[in-house]
Amino acid sequence: MTAATAQLDNGVLKVAGAVDADSVLALRAQGEAAISGANADLEVDLSGLETAHSVVLSMLMCWQRLAASKHHRLTYTGMSDRLQELAALSNLTAL
Questions:
Q1: Of 65, 16, 76, residue with least CA distance to 42
Q2: Which of 8, 44, 50, 60 has its CA 20 to 30 A from that of 73?
Q3: 59 with 28: CB under 8 angstroms?
Q4: pTM
Q5: What's the chain's average pLDDT?
């Protein structure tokens, strides 16, 4: 598995690698730094994620709250079917 990363590239926050309970905090911090420095809405590209885990949903909700506090909107793209299923089971499909 590849270490998880979140890198901002031309208004797109690209998330890649494997995420689990041990790696999610570092990934969350990377994403929060990018969102905090953004001056506009962002696309969050999840197509590079290698895993679907409930901790990913928690992280995305944290990012969503941070973006909302800055009056920015996050748009999620590239979400795997498995992650979408987890979101549906958790009543988070609006994410």
A1: 76
A2: 50
A3: yes
A4: 0.91
A5: 92
| Amino acid 95: pLDDT | 60
Give the tokens for residue 75: 């748009």
Tokens of 58: 């928690």
Written in H, E and C, the secondary structure of 33-95 is HHHHHCCCCEEEEEEEECCCCHHHHHHHHHHHHHHHHCCCCEEEECCCHHHHHHHHHCCCCCC
| pLDDT tens digit sequence for 9-46 | 999 999 999 999 999 999 999 999 999 999 999 999 99
Please, are residues 92 and 52 in contact by the beta-carbon 8 Å criterion?
A: no
**69 or 53: which carries more pLDDT confidence?**
69
Who contacts 20 (Cβ-Cβ below 8 Å, separation ≥6)?
51, 53, 55
